[in-house]
Design brief:
The chain is mainly α and 166 residues long. The protein has one domain: Alpha Horseshoe (Serine Threonine Protein Phosphatase 5, Tetratricopeptide repeat), CATH 1.25.40.10. It contains nine helices and no strands. Helix 2 packs antiparallel against helix 3, helix 3 packs antiparallel against helix 4 and helix 3 crosses helix 9. The longest helix is centred in the middle third of the chain and has 16 residues, at 102-117. The model is unreliable at 1-15 and 149-166 (pLDDT under 50).
């Protein structure tokens, strides 16, 4: 299939672990079909509540729709479901900072830093727009006031869903 075109037309109901539903949601989000993506994410999370990537994408979609408080809850679920998912901790830090909670933002950044320090410097970190562990650590040391989503892609959260989640 063409780049950005749906690659799997199977029903997510047949996927016991929710991964197919998540993949479909991601494809739809990349195409800008937010409502449909949200529906598939609901299926993915119902089938696989500990799929951190699904909670992360859910948080991004909620943030784009203007539901920051609910996005914060989804980001928390992401880090609970997948404690080693760096992008989830970075998003959580952004949301805490946005809500005026610098202590929790710092805690989330520190946890992400610990995870990144365990990675190879040139390892690309999933869902950060292709950023490497070294790039993210440098960003954390120099410009942690700029949201990492915008820092890494130069685009809005919506564009992060479309361009950065690769």
């Amino acid at each position: 299939p063409a780049r950005g075109a749906p690659s799997d037309t199977r029903s997510a109901a047949s996927a016991p672990d929710g991964l197919d539903a998540y993949r479909r949601a991601r494809e739809l989000a990349e195409l800008g079909q937010w409502s449909e993506a949200e529906q598939w994410l609901g299926r993915a999370i119902e089938q696989s509540p500990l799929l951190g990537e699904a909670h992360y994408l859910h948080a991004l979609l909620l943030l784009e729709a203007g539901y920051g408080d609910v996005a914060l809850t989804a980001a928390r679920r992401c880090t609970y479901a997948s404690p080693s998912y760096v992008a989830g901790h970075l998003l959580l830090a952004q949301l805490y900072r946005r809500d005026g909670d610098p202590r929790r933002a710092a805690n989330a950044l520190n946890y992400a830093r610990t995870l990144l320090e365990r990675c190879a410097p040139d390892e690309a970190i999933p869902d950060t727009g292709g950023a490497t562990a070294r790039q993210l650590l440098t960003w954390m040391e120099t410009d942690h006031n700029t949201p990492v989503v915008q820092q890494q892609t130069g685009k809005s959260v919506a564009m992060q869903v479309k361009a950065g989640l690769r």
